């Protein structure tokens, strides 16, 4: 059983949501919009893989993951508010988090093309660095723009950082739950071709997040997905396996902050050799903090 303290406290505040109207859906699950404690919130449906339909109980691995998420506190991580279970619906549960009005980072950039993109990347790196820290020790496993949201202050926050892919190694929690999910355009070669790296499909490496970071950075600077001319995942996988990486679009990206030092660190990040990828501290050193304000 999930401890009662992990559910929303409805004793003093009511949650209002129309659970018949989807506002977003995808591999991460269906998302609905509501209000709680006079603030807008997002309700993400717990998927069948995270819940036992026969016993109507949440799977033990998922419980551990929720417990970990509740303990995580960082400005660049989507906050966890609690689990919501509607009255009389024992097989329905939702994970509740603050509603991010600016949405996914790609949509935000299209609406705010002049925003400081380097600042957003710095936010992302700080979020990954926090997840990778010894006390947390979490590999995101599926870093991509759709898993990066922008809050009302224009700050990037990581979402979906492993509710289905999390690998945790803590003294009190130890779980690996279906960590094979990834998105090919952003995935490191060792995630896709794990057998060539003497790895298991379930192995998650922090270096793989660093590779994905570079792909995300490229999209932030270009407003295009990596390998935009390739429609199918196998073709993208073949390119990455062959050492192909996205090209630098100087005319398009220079004014957006993609300098030579940043491009150099991106090339190191998406190296096919794990040992050549830099630490996140090294990445931060190449990202200058500029004085332009955030845009909502």
From TrEMBL:
Gene3D superfamilies hit by this protein: Transferase(Phosphotransferase) domain 1
Keywords from the UniProt entry: Kinase, Transferase
Domain of life of the native organism: Eukaryota
Coiled-coil regions, chain positions: none
Any GO molecular function: protein serine/threonine kinase activity
InterPro entries the UniProt entry points to: Kinase-like_dom_sf, Prot_kinase_dom, Ser-Thr/Tyr_kinase_cat_dom, Ser/Thr_kinase_AS, Ser/Thr_Kinases-Pseudokinases
Domain Protein kinase: 17-290
The name this protein goes by in its record: Kinase-like protein
Origin species: Wolfiporia cocos (strain MD-104) (Brown rot fungus)
């Amino acid at each position: 059983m999930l401890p009662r303290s992990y559910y929303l406290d409805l004793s003093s505040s009511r949650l209002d949501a129309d659970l018949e109207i989807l506002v977003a859906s995808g591999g991460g699950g269906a998302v609905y919009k509501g209000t709680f404690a006079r603030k807008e919130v997002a309700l993400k449906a717990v998927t069948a893989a995270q819940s036992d339909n026969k016993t109507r109980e949440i799977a033990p691995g998922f419980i551990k993951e929720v417990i970990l998420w509740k303990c995580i506190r960082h400005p660049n991580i989507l906050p966890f508010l609690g689990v919501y279970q509607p009255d009389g619906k024992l097989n329905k549960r939702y994970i509740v988090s603050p509603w991010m009005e600016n949405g996914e980072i790609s949509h935000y950039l299209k609406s705010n093309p002049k925003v400081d993109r380097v600042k957003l990347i710095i936010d992302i790196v700080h979020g990954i660095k926090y997840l990778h820290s010894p006390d947390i020790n979490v590999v995101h496993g599926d870093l991509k723009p759709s898993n990066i949201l922008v809050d009302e202050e224009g700050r990037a926050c990581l979402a979906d950082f492993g509710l289905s892919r999390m690998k945790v190694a803590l003294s009190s929690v130890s779980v690996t739950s279906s960590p094979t999910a990834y998105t090919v355009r952003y995935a490191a070669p060792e995630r896709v071709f794990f057998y060539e790296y003497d790895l298991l499909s379930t192995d998650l490496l922090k270096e793989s997040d660093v590779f994905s970071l570079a792909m995300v950075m490229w999209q932030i600077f270009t407003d295009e997905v990596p390998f935009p001319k390739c429609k199918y995942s196998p073709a993208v996988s073949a390119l990455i396996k062959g050492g192909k990486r996205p090209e630098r679009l100087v005319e398009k990206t220079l004014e957006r902050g993609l300098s030579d030092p940043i491009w150099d660190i991106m090339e190191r990040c998406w190296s096919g050799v794990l040992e050549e990828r830099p630490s996140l501290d090294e990445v931060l050193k190449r990202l200058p903090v500029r004085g332009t304000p955030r845009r909502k």
